[in-house]
Each structure stands twice: as C-alpha cells, then as structure tokens.
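cron nightly-structures :: item 1 of 1
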Amino acid sequence: MRNRDSNGSSERQTGGAGTGPTDLNLLRTFLAVYRTGSFTAAARLLGLSQPTVTTQVRALERQLGRELFQRLARGVAPGPFADELAARVVEPLDALAAVAGPGGPAEDAAPEPVQLAGPVELLTHCVLPGLAPLVDRGVRLRITPGLTEPLLDELRAGRYDLVIATYRPRGRALAAVPLSDEEFVLVASPPWAERIGGPARIAAEGPAALHGAPLVAYAEDVPIVRRYWRHVFGKRLVRQPAVTMPDLDAVKAAVAGGTGFSVLPRYLCAAELASGALVALNEPDDPPINTGFLVQRPGSSGNPHVALVRDHLLAAARDW
C-alpha cells in the first residue's frame, strides 16, 4: 500500500528490518540526504517537502533496523552504516539516474555552486589563478579558507563538497587522494642572510648560525619550523618566535621586509627566491615535504560539477 503526501509523492510503507525489498525512492532520498548533509537541502534537490524526506529516511531506518544519520544543530552527519550503504548504492543509483533521469522539479535546475575549502595560501596562490576553465564550463564555486581539522568536521556534516587538507583524514568516512607535495624552505631577506653568513655557514654550523636572528612564525607553537628543525637538523627547536601571524603571506612579507627568518612552502616564495627578495639559507638533499590531500565524502554530491572541480584540481596540482 502507498501513502501519498500533500505533494503527491508516493512512499512504500515498510515494516521492521528485513521485511521485503527496499523501495528505490527511499534509497534515492537517503542518498540525497547523505550527499547534501541536510534534510532541507535534500528536499530541494528532490523536489519534495522536508517532512516527506524525513519520513522516508525514518522509514528506511525502520526497514534496515539501523540509524543512518545523527541529527546535528545544522544538518545531519552520517553514521558508520550510512557510509557503508552509500558506498553500495551510489553507483547503481547514479547509473539508473543517467538512464532514466533523476525526475522531479529539480531535474532541469542549474547545478548548485560547488563548496570548496582549504588553506588560504594554497587556495590563493595555486587554486584561484587556475579557475578560468571551470568558470568557462559554467561551474559556480563558493570557496572558504580555513584550517584542516574544522574543515574536515564540516565536510563530514555536509557543509562542503571538497576540502584540500594538509593531512590524510582518519577513518573510512572520507575519501582522500594525494593532491600535491609542498617543500619547505628556510628563508631570510638578503641583509639577514649576509649577517647570518649565508648557506655556507649554516651548512657548517647548523642552526647555531641563526643565533640572534629573529624568528617569524605562523603560530606560537611554530609547527612548520619545528618540523624543519627535526627533519633537517635532527634537533629540537627551543627558541620562541619574535613575531607570529596566522597567515603565511604575512609571514613572508615580514621576512622579506627584513624582520628575521622563517620556514615557508616553496610554492609560496618561489617568485621571491627567483627575484632575490628572499634567500634560501639551506638547500638540504632531503628537504621536509608535506603531502596535501583532496578529500570528499564517498558519494558526497549529486552535483555533476563536483566531479569537474575534483578532476580539474587533481590535474592542475601537477604544476603547483
């Protein structure tokens, strides 16, 4: 028997877990909620009312005997079984939609903007300059800068479609592929490089050559500089920064202005190194490298432009 809501959508009623075949409409609704991270957004995508979406998800949960989503203050977060179910149904449902069409009023609507987030410096210097091919294809983007950990939390909650992360996320709920490697460089302005004694002195004396030179850093706990010291010098960094600023472009500007020295990603200071505005104080055979990852929830969007953006970033990253 079918019940019909005020919008005329039909839903096959299900009993307890394992009582007959699952209605494809319930699976479509589940996947829309999984991809958007919201009952409301899924309702817009499907052309249904929000109560209908809620009812269908609850019906599927009753049939499966599992809770699929954790209700949050804003949206929902998928549970472990939801991740498994999405991984099983996304390909066949998307293949069916490609043949039959997704149906509903939203079928002919323009794709939603792609929500992309990541570190501000990488977005500014590597991602944004290469967006023309995407925009030419009609892609709309909403780009948000931020730190990896909170961005990944919001990706899990459905706030973003793609996140560029500075580390590989744990667990199976998020699909991560290597995007690019960033090399870190010890830099100073030419006057400070001369006062320090240049790369030759650092090669001979190690970090002791930097005694008396002010350290400019991204944060008080100097994570980038600490990693460089440990990897290159095999020593623990014991000094405090003279200046901190949570923006690597600002750190670069301070160092180029003669404030002191720092450690920066090479992509961020390549132009200054080439022009002589900054000097590389050390060129180790094995510089510290950090791998960035492009992260997406499995089956995280029914928006075809998400795949365009993902593929574009993976291809463009070869030249970063």
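cron nightly-structures :: done
The longest strand covers residues 175-188.
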